[in-house]
């Protein structure tokens, strides 16, 4: 996969997608969003890839937001289209049949924070900074931030970040539940890879169904979510991976999952 603004590498079941516009601190323009969509949909189809890591190039930024130079001249109709494009791409990432881990290596602002929030979970380097500073520009988040942030950290904390535009460091992001772990900057990718590798060894169908159960179940009332979980649980029993997983346990050996 060759892209202008992305790097994609694959090894040992794990793909790393790097947003690569370091001169603009990896800001997202329409072209980069289209490339991201193409990259993740290709990786979803690639049977060798079991987990995806998303990060930014350089040591300064994950993604410093939507590209302000690109947005500056947008009229309302084009702005809505841009918001819809970002929301579509982030929706695809959120619903992707494979886990996506954000390795936040620096600024994750505006659209960058929104991108990280569309991933399944986030790891942060010590120098990462998060924020939704759109109000400083006279706008609001357009790539789902007003919806995903309160779902992740609660309404009050989200509103404070959204209304003030304040940036928070990685420790504070960890404290409020925006990131799962803070690791030394130099260990960030290795840690993300280690977690992705661990997931890659599990039954891919089970991981996929876990993701469905959490993502879709959380949109339902608890009782319906549990009923949905039971259906997905039953579905696992139609897979070879389930038979292999349980057989391997009984035979006291590691399971070899084939994803079927
Ligand atoms: N867009 C375009 N270029 C950017 C962006 C950006 N978001 N962020 C940084 N850059 C560029 C700078 O213009 C600069 O370029 P140049 O060297 O050509 O002047 C280069 O990256 C380096 O940036 P700085 O010199 O500013 O670096 P500093 O270390 O001084 O500051 C900051 C780093 C704090 C990250 C600073 O660059 C900054 O505040 N950036 C903007 C952050 C921001 O406001 N992000 C939110 C943007 S709005 C948004 O994301 C909404 C998305 C959804 C919209 C959908 C509806 C249409």
UniProtKB/TrEMBL annotation:
<comment type="similarity">
    <text>Belongs to the enoyl-CoA hydratase/isomerase family.</text>
</comment>
<dbReference type="Pfam" id="PF00378">
    <property type="entry name" value="ECH_1"/>
</dbReference>
<dbReference type="InterPro" id="IPR018376">
    <property type="entry name" value="Enoyl-CoA_hyd/isom_CS"/>
</dbReference>
<keyword id="KW-0456">Lyase</keyword>
<dbReference type="InterPro" id="IPR029045">
    <property type="entry name" value="ClpP/crotonase-like_dom_sf"/>
</dbReference>
<dbReference type="InterPro" id="IPR001753">
    <property type="entry name" value="Enoyl-CoA_hydra/iso"/>
</dbReference>
<dbReference type="GO" id="GO:0006635">
    <property type="term" value="P:fatty acid beta-oxidation"/>
</dbReference>
<dbReference type="InterPro" id="IPR014748">
    <property type="entry name" value="Enoyl-CoA_hydra_C"/>
</dbReference>
<protein>
    <submittedName>
        <fullName>Enoyl-CoA hydratase</fullName>
    </submittedName>
</protein>
<dbReference type="GO" id="GO:0016836">
    <property type="term" value="F:hydro-lyase activity"/>
</dbReference>
């Amino acid at each position: 996969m060759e892209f202008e603004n992305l790097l994609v590498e694959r090894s040992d079941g794990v793909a790393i997608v790097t947003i690569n516009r370091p001169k603009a601190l990896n800001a997202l323009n329409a072209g980069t969003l289209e490339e991201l969509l193409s990259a993740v949909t290709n990786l979803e189809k690639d049977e060798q890839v079991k987990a995806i890591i998303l990060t930014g190039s350089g040591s300064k930024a994950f993604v410093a937001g939507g590209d302000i130079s690109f947005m500056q001249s947008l009229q309302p109709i084009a702005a809505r289209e841009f918001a819809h494009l970002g929301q579509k791409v982030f929706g695809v990432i959120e619903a992707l049949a494979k886990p996506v881990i954000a390795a936040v290596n620096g600024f994750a602002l505006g659209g960058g924070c929104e991108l990280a929030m569309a991933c399944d979970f986030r790891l942060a380097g010590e120098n990462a900074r998060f924020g939704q500073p759109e109000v400083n520009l006279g706008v609001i988040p357009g790539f789902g931030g007003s919806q995903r942030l309160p779902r992740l950290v609660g309404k009050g904390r989200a509103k404070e970040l959204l209304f003030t535009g304040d940036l928070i460091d990685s420790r504070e992001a960890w404290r409020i539940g925006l990131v799962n772990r803070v690791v030394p900057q130099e260990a960030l990718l290795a840690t993300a890879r280690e977690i992705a590798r661990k997931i890659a060894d599990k039954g891919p169908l089970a991981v996929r169904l876990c993701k469905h159960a959490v993502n879709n179940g959380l949109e339902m009332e608890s009782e319906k979510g549990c009923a949905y979980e039971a259906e997905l649980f039953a579905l696992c029993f139609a897979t070879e991976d389930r038979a292999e997983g349980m057989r391997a346990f009984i035979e006291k050996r590691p399971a070899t999952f084939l994803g079927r």
